[in-house]
Structure formats: structure tokens, C-alpha cells
Design a protein that fits this description.
The structure holds two protein chains of two kinds. By secondary structure, chain A is mostly helical. Chain A contains 20 helices and two strands. A two-stranded antiparallel ribbon of chain A has the order 1-2. Chain B contains 20 helices and two strands. Chain B has helices at residues 2-17, 22-46, 76-95, 104-123, 127-136, 138-148, 153-186, 193-198, 211-226, 235-242, 245-270, 272-299, 303-323, 327-358, 369-372, 374-387, 394-409, 412-437, 453-471, 473-489; strands at residues 55-63, 68-74. The longest helix of chain B has 34 residues, at 153-186. The A-B interface holds A 325, 328, 383, 388-390, 394-395, 397-398, 401-402, 405-406, 413, 417, 420-421, 424-425, 428, 431-432, 435-437, 471-473, 476, 478 and B 61-66, 128, 131-132, 135-136, 138-139, 142-143, 146-147, 153-154, 157-158, 161-162, 165-166, 169-170, 172-173, 176-177, 179-180.
Chain lengths: 478, 517
């Protein structure tokens, strides 16, 4: 019974997400009201937020269902962030031109399903539960991509992601079976901590570990596994894209953090550590370089997520090597990153048309004259992404630097500096276009629609970015 | 008091951006800037020039987990730059009165925000706070150049931002490293500069990459780009040419000084052995920079570019002075920062006034301007006299001290370059004056009209300053000499203490008073 109660945030999310779907079925398969259905799902998310706060695991670790799910304060905080992502995504989907109005309830259900999957993944106590959670989220993603009204590319992108994603999942499952064979159980953290010598002796374990890492790094688009980004993202609609870019990152980074807690300082892990280090450096460099070459604003932002994954991985590495503020830094970076990404994609709403997914950089020309408010906010979010003070992004970057130096990783720091300097180029370019280019007058059909209810959401995000820059100690409770 | 100095412009700037009427906005901006300047003059009254200690300190815990504080204070090194910043704000707001027609509120907002960040840079005593202000000064200037600049403005603004931000990333890394070192040595992390001064950084004579040297190079890169120092100077002429006249003036007078101030505040006291280690190389490069800047200036066909290259040349004197490692050089370099601020800001404003009338910066288009704008020519010649270091102007004092410092430090090659640089400096300025102001009146020069009263009022303080700094250097150095002496005498183990307010002294501002009666 206690297990059921503790897992109630998951149940409530699931039950509430069923409501819009059943209402639609009972109403002769017609959509009721976009706001009403979204309201139900939001209620579900808020109720699970509330339950999360109610059952806050302030006293160490709780394990549920024979430790299939594990619940501690760090994971609870991450779930909090994840559910907030869910709130933003639901807000963004309302009246979005890419969301099919006839299938709105279905998409909502799938979105909360993927959120549920991510939560399970986040709480997972062993590899098998992690696999179940990841698959639940991924299945919802495959469907959602294909359901988007983004022109012919939606189906193509959905299918591509399905093929690539299932290969990654298969690899992951294969790896899990290897780990089971080598260690006798599914708990990766236990493997690392209790029998680290297996890393040296058992080749099967190492192979399994490589497979598992490939499976997870694929989802968070760390450097050599980022190739699917353009195809899939260019076909999926923006709210979903935000969910995939931020939700998956929050979950998997926190999970990796939990698994590798305190193990990178062990001598047996040195090879794994150096693999992580190189992946982080290469992600930062390549992500930034590829983003620099993009002509499309959305694609540029997406490739910059590769670089941000790299920075996050750096925090992860330094914290597992012994950086005291590691956990706090990771969460702080994730929160700020979520806010920046959500904020900028909400701003981009003014450019979105049905069946048209690309946002050429040139469309930003002279935006400051037509939409001064949005231009200002885009500038703020971009500066934060670039890590310029006084924004939250700056403090996040400071923490990355501090973590690396704390562990004496000078060489990584050097490449980070180079990468961040490259990033300045493409983060400044849109700002220059918005404020400094004069465009020819645009015809009537370009009149932009921006739903009014999104403005307060944007303001909250912007305030958060500024406050987290000015008063980070408010969040750095460590 | 110091917090008010930092955040008043921010407050004013935010107000200004909401004033829609450009005329009203202009008036408000002038009023605000004037008020701000008068407010900053209070510092003369409360500042104690006798001590090198840190004064008017305000200290709050900010990010305790990382030892970062909101820690600001004033000493002799920063005193004049604070005054200079507020003075330049008034002048620039005045200079943009008729120049900026488009988006005037946003322009004034940028200028005021610029003042906030520059003021913060000069007052911050916490390294991370310093970095935040140092870096955030880029944003308003980026917009000033990029929105209100000339034809190539976007590229210029871009280059400016990227160059300086690239350097400051290394600065950030070095600051974070120093924070880590305070943790190692005292067991308590701190980003306060005073704590940094207490560090004893490892230095190995035979190795180029000892800890001290690496940190020195990181800091040096950041500040040398800002200064700008060859070979990192290429952003400057471009930014100057494209920026509107007030933007150029701020850039030359204040922003470049932030780089030079960084040398005084961080490099010289923090890395004494590395400074000695690298001094000959830096002096030589500075000497080359002086001559290079002068020659480049001589070759320019664009007036603003010429003045910009003269900035490169003059700022190299500052570095030469600092790295000659004696009191003469230090004073000379410091004074050169002030005189260069005055002369280059006024030269940029004057060039801006010419440009406003004729819309051309090309030297070949001009000739005989003296017949059309006699007063401007007089002002121009007077301020450029300071730039070529004629006795009785401020420039003479500073360059004389720098040369004396170089002589004492026995950097002969640098001395040869620097002395010849003085001569070349005279050549390019006089050649410019000859081509633009004298000779037959060209077509374009006919368009020029006399200076208005407002413009004369803007330039006149500069003329007074040029002579004032030349005739009464004692007054200007009085406020900084204690700090400069301290910096020189304690170079090997520099420490800075906070001046305690005596019990009977009243705080400047007091909110709420408790009495026992």
C-alpha cells in the first residue's frame, strides 16, 4: 500500500490524461474544447506535482515495488523540473498550428504518456525499469512525430526516428542482458560500486556497458550519436521538440548521475572516465561547429543542444570525480537550460505556420521593429544560452568552469572555452539580424498570431532567467 | 553611495526606454546624466586621498556556496575612472542630442546601461562581480555600434563582441582557478580580490607554464584584447569607425581603460614574478605597438580610423609604463590613461561634429576647413596637442614619465621605439591637421557650418582639462599617489586593507537612526 501511495504522482498523471480521451470517445469521437482537454491534463500534472511535494522523500531513499522504482530527493527535484516541462509543453500545444486539431486529445494523451515514461525512467531502480520507461516515452514520441501537421516530413521523420530509435533500444536491451549475465543483477550502480573489479576482468560487462551507453547517449544526442537530430527534429512540431530536447536530457542526465555517483574516482573506472571526457569535449566542439553552419534558426538551436549536452556531461564528470557542488550544479544547469529552451521556442511561435516547419534566419530581419517585445526576449534567451552575464546561463557556465578546474581538467576547460567562443558567433547572429538589419516591408499575409495566454508564461521564464542570474544562491542551496 | 553610483544609471536607463517622446527623452537624459555627474562629484568630499586603503566599502554575501560576494569599494586606482565615467556619460548624452534621430530612447538606455557596467567594473572588488560587469558592458556597446553605426556596423559590432568575449572567457577561467586556489590555501573559498592578493602563487623560474605564468597569460590575453594591444587590436579601428561619435568616445575613453585598469588591479599585484618574467617581452611589444600604431595612423585615409590607430599607439604607452616596473612608469602609465581618455574622447567628438555636417570621414574630401569652422579647428588643435605630448598639456606629463620609466628600467629597444613614437605621433596628427583644415577650401568643406553653443559647451571642458592636466598634474595625482606608491612598494607581496570608519565618523547615508533615549 505504501508503494502505491508513494507512486501516486505517476498514477494521477496517467488517470487524468485518460479523461480527455474518454470524453472524446463518449462525445462521438469529436473534439470538445482545446482548453478543456488541456485543462484536464494540466490538472493531472499539477496534481502529481502536489503529490510529489506531499510525499517528498526528505529522509533519504525510498524504494518501491521491491526497489524497481527508487525515489530520493535528487530524483524528486528532477521530477519536479520534468513535470514543469510538461506544463510548458501543454501550454505551447494549445492552438499551435502544427498540432492536429482533430486529434488534439490523442496528442495530449501521448504527451502525458511520454511524460509518464520519462518519470518511470527517472525513478527506475534498475536497468529493466529504465528500459520500460524509455520505451514508453519513445513509443509515444514515434507516434507524436508522425501525428504532427508539419507537411510531408512528419511521417518521414516519425518513421526515421522509429527505425533509428528501435535500433538504439535493441542495442540498449542487448547491453542490459550482458550486464545481467556478467553481474547477476540489473542494478548498474551496484555493479559500479560493489564489484568495480569486474570492469577489469569481465569483457562481457564492458561490452554491455558500451551498448547501454550508446542507447542512452543516443537519446540525449551526445556527439557521435547526434546524427538523427536534423532528420527527426525537422519533422516534428515545436512543443514535441521541446519535450524531446529538454525532458529526455533532464531524465537521462539525472539518471546517469545517480548511477555513476562516486564511481569515477575509482581507479577501475579510468577508461570509462576518459571515454566520457572525450565525448563531452567532442560534443561541445562539434555541436557548436555544426550549429554555426546552419541557416535555419530552429536547426541551429537544435545543434546547440548537442553542445549543451556536452556541458552537462562535463558537470557530470567533474561531480563524479569529487566536485562538491556537482549535484546542485547539474540541477541548476538543467533548470536554466529548460527555461531558456522553452522560452526561446515559445518566442518562435510567431514564425510558425501550418505545414511549414523551417524558420530561415532571414525571417528574423528587423524583428525589433515589428515585435519589440519578442525580439527583446529572444535576445535575452540567446544571451543566456551563450552564457553572457547577467543571466542564468552565465552562472551555469561559471559552474561548468568551476567544476572542471576543481578537478584539474585544464585541457577540457581549454576546449570548452574554444567551443563557447564559437557559440558566440551563432548566438549573436540572430540578435544582429533582429536589431541591425533593415528589411523590406512585408505583406499583409505575414501578420503574426501570438496567443495571449503565452505572454505571462514568457514573462515568468524571462524573469526566472534574470533572477537566476542575479540571485543564484536562491537556487544553489548546497 | 557606491551602489547608488552603479545602479542609478540602470534605473535611469530603464525609465528612459519607456519615454516615448524623443524630445522629452533627450531632455530627461541630459537631466539624469547631469544629476549623476554632480552626484559622483560627492566623491571628492568623502574620498580620503591620504591612504591606499579601500574606502566606502559595501560588502554583502551573494553566492555563499562559491564565496562570491557583492563587494565594492573605492581606492586611488579606481577613483579617477569613476569620475571619468560619469563625466563621459554627460558628454556623450550631450553629443548625441542632434546626432541620434532614430530610436533615441533605446540609444540613451544603452548609454546609461553602459555606464552601469563600466562603473561596476571599476568599483568591483570581487573577481566574479568584476567579470560580470566587465562582460556585460559588451552588450550595450554591441547594440550602440550595431544599431546606430555606419555602413559596416553589423560586422564591426560582431567582431568587437567576439574578440573581447573570447578574451574574457580566459579571464573567467583564470578567476575560477584563483578561487580554487584560495580554497586550497585557506580552506575557505573566496572570490574577493583581497583574498587573491594574499595568495602565494607558485612560480618556477625555468618553466614557462608554471601556475603563475599560466594565470598571468590568461589575464593578459583578456586585458590585452580590451586595451587593445598588438596583435589583438584589429577590432578597435573597425569598431571606432562604425560606431556613432558618442559611442566612439565612450569606447576610447572608458572601455579601453577597463582593460588598462585590469592590469593595475589584477596583473601587477597578483603575479609579481610573472610580470618580471614577461616584462622585457611586453615592453618590446609595447614599443613596437607604439610605432606600429603611429605608422598605421599615418597611412589612413579615414579620419576616425586615424584617431583609432592613434589610440592603439597611445594605449601601448600605458602598457610600456606599467611594465617598466618602477614608479615613474607606473605614474606615467596611469596618467596616460587619463590624458588619453580626455584627448581621444574629444578628438572623436570633434570628428563626429565634422561628420555630422558633411557626412564624410574621408580625409581627401576635406581641405580649408579652418575658414569655415575656425573654432572647431582651434579646439581640435588644442586637444591634438595633448595627443602629441606638447609641454603644458597632459600628454606631455604622462609620456615624459613613461619614457623616464622605460629609461630607468633599461629596456633600450623599447625606449628607442617609444621616443621615435612620440615624433611619429606628431607627424600623423600634424599631417591630418594640414590636410583637413588648411589649404584650399574643398567642395565638401563648403557645406560645413559653425559650431553651435551646445557643441562648444561640450568641447570646452575638454580643453580646460587638457591644460589643467598639463599644468596641475599634482591635483590629479594627489588622489591616486598613495595607491600607486603602495602598488610599487609592495609589488612583491601586495596586500590591500579596508579602511575602517572611525567611531565618530558618520556614515554618508543612514536609514533609520537608533537612539537610547
Amino acid at each position: 500500500m505504501n508503494d502505491l501511495l508513494l507512486s501516486s504522482p505517476l498514477w494521477s498523471l496517467f488517470l487524468f490524461s485518460l479523461i480527455p480521451l474518454s470524453v472524446k470517445v463518449l462525445n462521438k469521437n469529436r473534439e470538445v474544447s482545446v482548453f478543456l482537454s488541456s485543462g484536464f491534463v494540466l490538472m493531472g500534472i499539477f496534481s502529481s506535482l502536489f503529490l510529489l511535494l506531499y510525499f517528498w522523500p526528505s529522509s533519504g531513499e525510498e524504494s518501491l515495488f521491491y526497489s524497481a522504482l527508487v525515489f530520493n530527493e535528487f530524483r524528486a527535484l528532477a521530477s519536479f523540473v520534468l513535470l514543469l516541462v510538461g506544463v510548458f509543453v501543454v501550454f505551447m500545444s494549445i492552438q499551435h498550428p502544427h498540432v492536429d486539431k482533430d486529434h488534439f486529445s490523442e496528442t495530449l494523451f501521448l504527451k502525458s504518456g511520454s511524460l509518464l515514461g520519462l518519470l518511470i525512467l527517472l525513478w527506475s531502480g534498475n536497468l529493466l525499469m529504465a528500459f520500460i520507461g524509455l520505451e514508453l516515452a519513445s513509443l509515444a514520441f514515434y507516434l507524436l512525430i508522425a501525428l504532427g501537421r508539419t507537411g510531408s516530413s512528419a511521417l518521414k521523420a516519425g518513421f526515421k526516428y522509429f527505425v533509428l530509435g528501435s535500433v538504439a533500444s535493441a542495442v540498449l536491451l542487448y547491453g542490459i542482458s550482458f550486464v545481467l549475465g556478467a553481474a547477476g543483477h540489473f542494478d548498474l550502480h551496484k555493479v559500479f560500486q560493489q564489484t568495480p573489479e569486474l570492469m577489469m576482468t569481465s569483457r562481457i560487462l564492458v561490452l554491455g556497458l558500451v551498448f547501454i551507453l550508446v542507447g542512452f547517449l543516443f537519446k540525449i544526442s551526445i556527439f557521435p550519436f547526434h546524427f538523427w537530430l536534423p532528420d527527426v527534429y525537422s519533422g516534428s512540431f515545436t512543443p514535441l521538440l521541446v519535450l524531446m530536447a529538454t525532458g529526455l536530457k533532464v531524465t537521462i542526465f539525472v539518471l546517469l548521475f545517480e548511477w555513476t555517483k562516486g564511481v569515477f574516482s575509482l581507479p577501475e573506472m579510468s577508461s570509462l572516465l576518459s571515454v566520457f571526457q572525450w565525448l563531452a569535449v567532442l560534443s561541445v566542439l562539434f555541436g557548436n561547429i555544426i550549429a554555426l553552419l546552419q541557416k535555419d534558426f530552429k536547426k541551429m538551436l537544435l545543434f546547440s543542444t548537442v553542445a549543451h549536452s556536452g556541458y552537462l556531461l562535463m558537470i557530470l564528470i567533474s561531480s563524479q570525480m569529487g566536485f562538491y557542488f556537482g549535484g546542485t550544479s547539474l540541477l541548476y544547469y538543467l533548470i536554466v537550460y529548460v527555461c531558456m529552451t522553452v522560452g526561446i521556442f515559445i518566442c518562435l511561435r510567431i514564425f510558425e505556420r501550418e505545414n511549414d516547419i523551417a524558420i530561415d534566419l532571414n525571417r528574423l530581419n528587423d524583428l525589433s521593429r515589428q515585435k519589440p517585445f519578442h525580439a527583446f526576449l529572444i535576445t535575452l534567451f540567446l544571451l543566456s544560452l551563450a552564457g553572457v552575464p547577467p543571466t542564468g546561463g552565465f552562472v551555469a557556465k561559471l559552474l561548468v568552469f568551476y567544476g572542471l578546474l576543481d578537478q584539474g581538467l585544464w585541457w577540457m576547460l581549454f576546449w570548452t572555452i574554444i567551443g563557447s567562443s564559437i557559440a558566440l558567433f551563432y548566438y549573436l547572429k540572430p540578435i544582429a539580424l533582429m536589431y541591425m538589419k533593415k528589411s523590406e516591408p512585408i505583406g499583409e499575409e505575414e501578420a503574426v498570431f501570438f496567443p495571449r495566454f503565452l505572454t505571462p508564461v514568457l514573462l515568468v521564464l524571462a524573469c526566472f532567467i534574470l533572477i537566476s542570474g542575479f540571485l543564484p544562491s536562491f537556487f544553489l542551496f548546497g | 553611495m557606491l551602489s547608488a553610483l552603479i545602479f542609478l544609471p540602470l534605473f535611469f536607463g530603464v525609465i528612459l526606454i519607456f519615454v516615448k517622446n524623443p524630445d522629452l527623452c533627450r531632455k530627461c537624459a541630459v537631466f539624469f546624466a547631469g544629476f549623476y555627474f554632480l552626484f559622483s562629484l560627492f566623491l571628492f568630499k568623502v574620498f580620503d586621498s591620504q591612504t591606499e586603503q579601500l574606502q566606502l566599502v559595501e560588502r554583502l554575501s551573494w553566492i555563499p556556496a562559491l564565496g562570491i560576494e557583492y563587494f565594492i569599494g573605492l581606492d586611488g586606482l579606481s577613483f579617477w575612472f569613476v569620475i571619468l565615467t560619469s563625466f563621459l556619460l554627460v558628454v556623450c548624452v550631450g553629443a548625441s542630442w542632434s546626432l541620434i534621430k532614430e530610436k533615441a530612447p533605446a540609444f540613451y538606455c544603452c548609454l546609461f546601461l553602459m555606464s552601469t557596467s563600466v562603473m561596476g567594473t571599476f568599483l568591483a572588488m570581487d573577481a566574479v562581480l568584476f567579470y560580470i560587469f566587465f562582460e556585460s558592458s559588451l552588450i550595450p556597446l554591441y547594440f550602440i555600434i550595431g544599431i546606430w553605426g555606419g555602413k559596416d556596423r553589423v560586422y564591426a559590432a560582431f567582431k568587437f563582441f567576439i574578440y573581447t568575449a573570447f578574451g574574457s572567457l580566459f579571464l573567467l577561467a583564470a578567476v575560477v582557478a584563483l578561487m580554487g586556489l584560495t580554497l586550497q590555501s585557506t580552506g575557505e573559498i573566496s572570490a574577493s580580490i583581497l583574498e587573491f592578493y594574499k595568495l602565494d602563487l607558485p612560480f618556477i623560474k625555468t618553466s614557462l607554464f608554471s601556475t603563475q605564468n599560466v594565470l598571468f597569460l590568461c589575464f593578459f590575453l583578456a586585458f590585452a584584447i580590451k586595451l587593445p594591444f598588438i596583435p589583438f587590436h584589429t577590432w578597435l579601428p573597425l569598431a571606432h569607425v562604425e560606431a556613432p561619435a558618442p559611442g566612439s568616445a565612450v569606447l576610447a575613453a572608458v572601455v579601453l581603460k577597463m582593460g588598462a585598469y585590469g592590469f593595475l588591479r589584477f596583473l601587477l599585484p597578483l603575479f609579481p614574478q610573472s610580470v618580471e618574467f614577461f616584462a622585457p617581452v611586453v615592453c618590446l611589444l609595447a614599443g613596437i605597438g607604439i610605432v606600429y600604431g603611429a605608422f598605421m595612423a599615418l597611412a589612413q585615409t579615414n579620419m576616425k580610423k586615424l584617431v583609432a590607430y592613434s589610440s592603439v599607439s597611445h594605449m601601448a604607452y600605458v602598457l610600456l609604463g606599467f611594465f617598466s616596473l618602477n614608479l615613474y612608469g607606473l605614474i606615467g602609465g596611469f596618467y596616460q590613461m587619463l590624458t588619453h581618455a580626455v584627448s581621444s574622447a574629444s578628438l572623436f567628438l570633434l570628428v563626429g561634429m565634422i561628420y555630422e555636417r558633411t557626412q564624410s570621414l574621408n580625409i581627401a574630401d576635406y581641405g580649408g576647413l579652418a575658414k569655415k569652422m575656425p573654432r572647431l579647428v582651434i579646439f581640435f588643435i588644442i586637444t591634438s596637442l595633448s595627443a602629441i605630448a606638447l609641454p603644458s598639456t597632459g600628454g606631455f606629463i604622462s609620456e615624459f614619465f613613461v619614457l623616464m620609466g622605460t629609461f630607468t628600467s633599461k629596456n633600450w629597444w623599447a625606449l628607442v621605439f617609444a621616443v621615435s613614437g612620440v615624433v611619429f605621433g606628431a607627424v600623423y596628427i600634424l599631417y591630418l591637421i594640414h590636410r583637413v583644415f588648411f589649404g584650399p577650401v574643398s567642395e565638401l568643406s563648403k557645406k560645413a557650418s559653425l559650431l553651435s553653443k551646445r557643441e562648444i559647451g561640450l568641447i570646452f571642458p575638454f580643453v580646460l582639462l587638457v591644460f589643467g592636466m598639463g599644468v596641475f598634474p599634482g591635483f590629479f595625482l594627489k588622489y591616486s599617489s598613495a595607491s600607486l606608491n603602495h602598488l610599487q612598494n609592495q609589488r612583491k607581496n601586495y596586500e590591500l586593507s579596508i579602511k575602517r570608519v572611525q567611531m565618530d565618523a558618520q556614515p554618508v547615508f543612514q536609514i533609520g537612526k537608533y537612539s537610547h533615549e
